[in-house]
């Protein structure tokens, strides 16, 4: 490992004349600049903390309050109604002895002004929180806005008129409410009615009634108690039990992918695209750290908590549960190419390297002819296999020494980059088939050339196409889509130091590690080979034409999926659609049960040859029902997260519920989702449709069906 000496800041040699100390000025300079950059980031976080703390006011408003109070005092008027005099009576004796009467009055006025300023800020924040808790606007028809909602919009705009930071609204967002247990059970029974026989539905109804009258209310009280002190009664349990405690491979089962432009490739130069992509992602990280990104909004702001762990984050395996590890900063990215791992420094003397400089380093990696060390090439398969073997190998062979240092360099990197030696995209004589292979490559690759534990891994293909694979526990797809949309908009192409990250296994443990690598790779390949993936662009019409018919595009797609499933399978099934709950603090997702009585009525009418007018009427009714279900899920009145948390509480209490056990064991045969595009609205897809992206996708959640759009 001759390259490792480049990272040593000093060396010493013991000689008969004493100790010969050799300093590396370049290395010490880098350490100094790294420390300065770290302190700048700390100062920036402190400053942003103050700005967030006083939002929607500003720090300068304190000076305004002080000037007004002092001016009124100078005019022989007391705006405090005697409070300033009382504060003056309680000043410390040392101040009373050292200050004149006017000085004491001045200090008392400053204290009163500060308290008044803080009280006004608290009142404004409380008002903003109350306003952000209003969700009736979501249920009003387009073009028929009530006067209450119009007043509400005006007040929200007034209180949020000052330019916010990324996290300015966090403490003003409402907490996710715990819905009444009766409402949840009624909605659940309604959702399964078209899927059960009358006798089976009656059986489940009795279970639900028994649960509500006995154990349900007890569990509900515990859940309400948690909601009082937790910012979100769902998210921490959802992250732990749905994601981190899963012992199956996260590749395919949990991780998801994002794709590049469909028709446009900014450059076919792999190193140039890599340099530009890495730079764009690091500039985005800088905006996140400085909170310069605008909070994502619908009508009101959405929770931005998921941005906090976007970079410098990894999922560390454990035997019982994994752990998300996050570091404040990282000055390098980890790169993988042809079986070798590299550490790529992206800062020099405290500044971010340019795309051209990073391109030069990437090109050196691409041109590096050195072969992988024994065991290095397929080491990433450990992150693709089952979690328990990976946790045991990590604990036994990667907890100390050179292996730990090498693993730390991957896990503490800003993100992971794979320089793939394949060409992907919509190209050649079989563009549709190539799109399928492109998606599968991003979803699982070769099962060892991605580091699936990293918050996200960027893949740069040989022909300049790019994409990413994201770990799911730290954030949901819309957050990563916002990052990725920002990245692919950076299309500036540019036609330096390189440190290698090497894996070095002691011979005494190499064979045991290699055996586990092979086992994990076999598990991952079996999983990858079992995935069928088909990706296609639909060009007949888009959401614009659907909206002209006054139909929700989401409802349109969901009804089309119900019709397709019925024609394919001859029946209906439990259908999952992901909805966000980021209108609330620390919100993540809720389930929309898309298969409803109304959607089934429409499908059956269409298949049974009913008249056009009747089918259209049933279609609109089903679409309106779906939209209402979606709105209920977004505003905290969903079904599945509430029942999930009741189930968790029952497990903590050590009690069994036949009803909850049946609910949580029901299989989702059809799982759907959607990735929002044009969140940034920085380009015009109407006039430039060639810049459309296919978004991304997840792996299947069952062995039967899966759709993602």
UniProtKB/TrEMBL annotation:
Pathway: Lipid metabolism; fatty acid beta-oxidation. It is a multi-pass membrane protein. The active site is at residue 472. One of its GO terms (biological process) is carnitine metabolic process. Residues 176-702 form the Choline/carnitine acyltransferase domain. It is found in: Mitochondrion outer membrane. Keywords: Acyltransferase, Fatty acid metabolism, Lipid metabolism, Membrane, Mitochondrion, Transferase, Transmembrane, Transmembrane helix, Transport. Signal peptide: none annotated. Residues 1-47 form the Carnitine O-palmitoyltransferase N-terminal domain. It comes from the Eukaryota. It is an enzyme of class 2 (transferase). One of its GO terms (molecular function) is carnitine O-palmitoyltransferase activity. The keyword Electron transport does not apply. Its EC number is 2.3.1.21. It catalyses: (R)-carnitine + hexadecanoyl-CoA = O-hexadecanoyl-(R)-carnitine + CoA. The chain crosses the membrane at residues 50-73, 106-128. GO terms for cellular component: mitochondrial outer membrane. PANTHER family: CARNITINE O-ACYLTRANSFERASE (PTHR22589), CARNITINE O-PALMITOYLTRANSFERASE (PTHR22589:SF105). Belongs to the carnitine/choline acetyltransferase family. This is carnitine O-palmitoyltransferase.
């Amino acid at each position: 490992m001759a390259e490792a000496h480049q990272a040593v800041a000093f060396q010493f040699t013991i000689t008969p004349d004493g100790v010969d100390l050799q300093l590396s000025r370049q290395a010490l300079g880098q350490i100094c600049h790294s420390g300065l950059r770290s302190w700048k980031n700390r100062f920036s976080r402190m400053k942003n903390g103050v700005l967030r703390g006083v939002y929607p006011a500003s720090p300068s408003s304190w000076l305004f309050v002080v000037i007004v109070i002092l001016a009124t005092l100078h005019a022989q008027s007391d705006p405090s109604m005697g409070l300033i005099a009382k504060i003056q009576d309680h000043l410390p004796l040392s101040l009373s002895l050292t200050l004149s009467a006017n000085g004491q009055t001045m200090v008392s006025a400053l204290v009163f002004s500060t308290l008044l300023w803080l009280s006004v800020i608290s009142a404004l924040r409380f008002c903003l929180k109350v306003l952000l808790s209003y969700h009736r606007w979501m249920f009003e028809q387009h073009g028929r806005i009530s006067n209450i909602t119009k007043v509400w919009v005006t007040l929200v705009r007034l209180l949020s008129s000052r330019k916010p930071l990324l996290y300015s609204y966090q403490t003003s967002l409402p907490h996710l409410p715990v819905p009444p247990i009766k409402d949840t059970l009624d909605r659940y029974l309604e959702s399964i009615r078209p899927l059960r026989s009358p006798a089976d539905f009656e059986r489940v109804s009795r279970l639900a009634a028994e649960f509500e009258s006995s154990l349900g209310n007890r569990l509900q009280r515990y859940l309400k108690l948690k909601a009082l002190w937790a910012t979100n009664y769902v998210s921490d349990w959802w992250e732990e039990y749905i994601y981190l405690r899963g012992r199956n491979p996260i590749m395919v089962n949990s991780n998801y992918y994002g794709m590049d432009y469909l028709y446009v490739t900014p450059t076919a130069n792999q190193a140039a695209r890599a340099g530009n992509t890495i730079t764009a992602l690091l500039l985005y990280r800088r905006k996140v750290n400085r909170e310069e990104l605008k909070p994502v909004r619908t009508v009101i702001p959405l929770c931005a908590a998921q941005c906090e762990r976007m970079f410098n984050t990894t999922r560390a395996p454990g035997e019982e549960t994994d752990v998300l590890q996050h570091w404040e900063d990282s000055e390098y990215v980890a790169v993988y190419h042809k079986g070798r791992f590299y550490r790529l420094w992206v800062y020099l003397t405290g500044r971010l390297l340019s795309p051209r400089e990073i391109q030069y380093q990437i090109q050196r990696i691409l041109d590096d002819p050195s072969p992988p060390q024994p065991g290095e090439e397929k080491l990433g398969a450990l992150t693709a296999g089952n979690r328990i073997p990976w946790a045991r190998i990590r604990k036994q062979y990667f907890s100390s020494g050179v292996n730990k240092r090498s693993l730390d360099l991957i896990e503490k990197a800003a993100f992971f980059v794979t320089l793939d030696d394949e060409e992907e995209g919509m190209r050649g004589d079989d563009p549709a088939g190539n799109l399928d292979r492109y998606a599968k490559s991003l979803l699982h690759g070769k099962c060892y050339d991605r580091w699936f534990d990293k918050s996200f891994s960027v893949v740069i293909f040989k022909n300049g196409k790019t994409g990413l694979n994201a770990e799911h526990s730290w954030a949901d797809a819309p957050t990563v889509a916002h990052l990725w949309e920002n990245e692919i908009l950076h299309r500036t192409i540019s036609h330096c130091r390189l440190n290698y990250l090497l894996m070095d296994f002691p011979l005494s443990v190499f064979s045991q590690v290699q055996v586990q690598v092979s086992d994990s790779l076999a598990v991952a390949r079996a999983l990858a080979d079992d995935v069928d993936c088909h990706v296609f662009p639909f060009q007949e019409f888009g959401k614009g034409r659907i909206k002209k018919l006054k139909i929700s595009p989401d409802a349109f797609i969901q009804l089309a999926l119900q019709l397709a499933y019925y024609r394919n399978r001859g029946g209906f099934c439990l259908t999952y659609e992901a909805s966000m709950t980021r209108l609330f603090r620390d919100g993540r997702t809720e389930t929309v049960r898309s298969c409803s009585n109304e959607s089934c009525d429409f499908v059956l009418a269409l298949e049974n040859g009913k008249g056009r007018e009747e089918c259209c009427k049933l279609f609109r009714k089903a679409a309106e029902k779906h939209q209402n279900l979606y709105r209920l899920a977004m505003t905290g009145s969903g079904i599945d997260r509430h029942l999930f948390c009741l189930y968790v509480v029952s497990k903590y209490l050590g009690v069994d519920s036949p009803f909850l056990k049946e609910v949580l064991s029901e299989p989702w045969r059809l799982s759907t989702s959607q990735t929002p595009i044009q969140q940034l609205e920085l380009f015009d897809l109407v006039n430039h449709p060639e810049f459309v992206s296919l978004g991304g996708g997840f792996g299947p959640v069952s062995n039967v069906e899966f759709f993602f759009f």
